[in-house]
Amino acid sequence: MNSDEVLARLTRVFRDVFDDDEIVISPATTARDVDGWNSLTNIRLMISIEVEFGIKFDVGEFQEYRSVGDLVAGIVRRAG
Amino acid sequence: MGIWWPASFGVLAEPIMTVRRMPWLPLAPDDFRRRCDVIDRMSAKRVGALRELANYELNDSQLLRLVRSLNKARAEEGDSPLQPFTLGLVSNTTTDFLAPALQGAGLRHGLALQTAIAPFGVTLQAAVSADFGVLPAKPDAILLALDFRAYFADYSLRDNDADIAVDGAIGQLRSLVTAFQTASRAAVLVQSIVAPPERLFGSFDRRQPGTPPWLAALFNKRLLDEILGPGVSLIDVEALATQIGLANWYDRSQYMTARLPFAAECVPLYAEHVVRVLGAIRGQGRKVLTLDLDNTLWGGVIGDDGIEGIRLGQGDPIGEAFLDVQRAALSLKRRGVLLAVCSKNDEAVALKAIREHPEMILREADFSAFQINWADKTTNLEILADRLSLGLDSFVFLDDSPFERDQVRKSAPKVLVPDLPSDPAAYARVLMTAGFFEAVTFSAEDRMRVDQYAANRRRETLAAQSRDISEFLQSLHMEATFTTGGKLGWSRFAQLINKSNQFNLTTRRYTEAEIMVMAADPSTLTMQVRLTDQFGDNGMIAALICRPENGDWVIDTWVMSCRVLGRGVEQAVLNRLVEEARAAGIRRLVGIYRPTERNGLVSEHYAKLGFASVSTGDGDRWTLDLADYGAREVPIVIKCDPDAF
What we know:
The complex is a heterodimer.
Chain A: H1 3-17, H2 39-53, H3 61-64, H4 68-79
Helix pairs in contact in A: 1-2, 1-4
Chain B: H1 5-13, H2 32-40, H3 46-53, H4 60-77, E1 83-91, H5 98-108, E2 111-119, H6 120-128, E3 141-145, H7 148-152, H8 162-183, E4 187-191, H9 212-227, E5 232-235, H10 237-244, H11 246-249, H12 252-258, H13 267-281, E6 288-291, H14 302-309, H15 317-334, E7 338-344, H16 347-356, E8 369-373, H17 377-387, E9 395-398, H18 402-411, H19 427-433, H20 444-465, H21 469-476, E10 478-484, H22 490-499, H23 512-520, E11 525-533, E12 536-549, E13 552-560, H24 569-583, E14 588-593, H25 605-608, E15 612-615, E16 620-625, E17 636-639
Parallel strand pairs in B: 1-2, 1-3, 3-4, 4-5, 6-7, 6-9, 7-8, 10-17, 13-14
Antiparallel strand pairs in B: 10-11, 11-12, 12-13, 14-16, 15-16
């Protein structure tokens, strides 16, 4: 899976978790850019991504990502 | 066979897209959120439409989306057709994920669930204080969602006397339960606990006092013996976690990250288990399991393969799978679930297989009714409902064919139709983990129910042979027993009140705990009626509650089992009620009829019994002056032995 494919699937997860079909994410997107991205939705997001991609982040790993670009790279590394 | 492992290896390397926790529910459609949007824009009946969407297996985000639509719809068009239900929840851990999951599961079970979640420490005090503080004023139920950590965090082998630690935990739970029972009439739900999978010694842990598995086992044993009882029901979290697998249930990473007490992926299933019990308290368990035949009760098609060709029996893995389905159905029958057949087949051919196939576990006498013909299944289910005097909302329909399932779901949405995977080895497990027949009690009546329906068929035969109705009623040799107050029989009483929809004058629902309060109150009359006849014991068939009001008795509740309709029981009950009223110095009875979608049957109940109509705003009101009342003859011998039960 390449970065573009991951980003496309990730967009679907974001739209589900934040209940907003208008969300557009890019590698530069950070938590500040998305309405409703707080500590609770962050956990929801993490778990939904794990289910969507069939992966499991190491403890603390997800919280270390600073942007969607970091996250995509992490998913590509894990999901292969 | 080929070499199996390289193929399996390939499958395992694929990402697991969706973890199926509730395989009896169909997977949510890809356009789930768009469907919610469409319902949002409907002008009416949105709650009912959303209820159908709740019958998919939904993840956390989908549940949130559904609940957003639900709350909007309820605010604008009310709770109907859902039953309102307020659940107070006390927990020692993070509960942020629970509310939408509980509300979504509630919707699936026809409950408009309002949840009020209180943090553990605060509520212990609030519960003990008289004003009841944090939780809603009148909850229908309180769930004490306390897990192993609430009682034994870091306890392992700390003290020499581990019994005392369990004493403390049970004492803590008991004082909470007592506090809630004193402060409200809510049903209380408590949870069994389960130790994390990590072991101190290994298998020896179970024997060593003070290890987590030892503590959990003793706690659960004492929970069963000392805490559970009338008004206190169990959510068996230990069983649930074991089914999921302890290493999956206790997700260490999620606990460290967000203090989630158990894996977030399990929250919808946990909520489903909680709401099943709430539904059971409200008497919503299903009563009939209707089974397809070909490829559901046996492998193959009887019409094509013949009695020798169908797959059923040991020595053949496929034949064993269907034995498993039959065994499951038989065990359900033993606990009072009626079995019926609904199959597209030639009736004579199918019945011959049921009667003569040497490996059949279920035989003709195990079924309460058959519809075997080429008509569509919904029509046949409606005929079965009519024959058994039950609503379609009492039915579960098991069928291997996705086409038939879909057709029944669309044309008879009240029937519960579980999805089945392609593998018949999983059928029995899907059926037995789906919780369709959840119950909070198991009474003698339940055990007798299947025989009672069989006795009813013999009564029908006798009725057909009798010259007239009074000869028939006389030949039944009925005996009725009346019990007022007392301590026994209240779980069946609660079950009758909560399950009766048709012969139910007011459709007021009460929990067992509420009923026991009324039974102990000398100013309120609670009356149980039991009926036997020459064909057997019908068990408790009527339940009444009368409350005093300005010197009258208002008949708050009058429910009766439809199985005994048309036998003069209503008249016998009234005769007895008048005697009780006169003995209490009452001069007038007031009857109320509150119409619902289901109770048209009894709209003229009080008129038929000679009550006079008084119109008011609160449904139809009827009065009966006791001075004028003369007991009418009934073909029933009355036995009044309050100590008999």
